[in-house]
Structures are given as C-alpha cells and as structure tokens.
Amino acid sequence: QVQLVESGGGLVQAGGSLRLSCAASRSIAGINDMGWYRQAPGKQRELVAGFTSGSSTHYPDSVKGRFTISRDNAKNTVFLQMNSLKAEDTGVYYCYARVLTSFTLKDYWGQGTQVTVSS
Q1: Which one, 43, 72, 83, 91, has the greatest CB density within 10 A?
Q2: Strand, helix or coil for residue 119
C-alpha cells in the first residue's frame, strides 16, 4: 500500500511555471511505474508524464518539451516541472503509482491538485 499526496498547484499566468510534488508514504525506490495524469473539466483523465518499463519516461505531444518528470527516492517524492504553461493545461493533476503486490498490480492515486492557467 502507498498513500500519495500532491502539492504545488495553484494559479499561474500563461507562460509561467509550476512544480508539482507527489509525496509517497513509503519508499518508492522499487516502484518504476509512477507519474502524473490530469483531468480538465469535461474531459477524460489523460497521462501527462510517467516513468514506464525500463525506467524510461513518456510524455504526450501536448506537453513534450514543456513538462519534465523527475524523482527523489530519498524523499519518496516524484516531481512534475511544468514550464511555458498554457490555458489548456488547466485541470486537476493526479499522481499515480502502480505497485506489484503478491503478483498483482494495484494502482494508487492521490487526491489531486488544481492547476489553473490564466491567459
């Protein structure tokens, strides 16, 4: 089991930057599948950044070059650096982790943090 708590959201002007943090309740050193989703009003939740198999990273075209995911295992924290923010980046951002427990993969989600980009 792992609890995830996001922070760092807020209101920012278009073109600005924010850094989101996802603090985990346990060690994340052995968890490769972690990342960030977002959900805008009226839209489905979408992946915006993630660590994938082989510890590679993935970004959709909509954020590529602007968002960077990173982690600090010593602090049990995953970060999302967001630069050159656009109005369409507005939404609730959720941290997730996929954990293998007794040969079963289980997904965990944080409560989300609101990001609002004004133009």
Answers
A1: 91
A2: coil
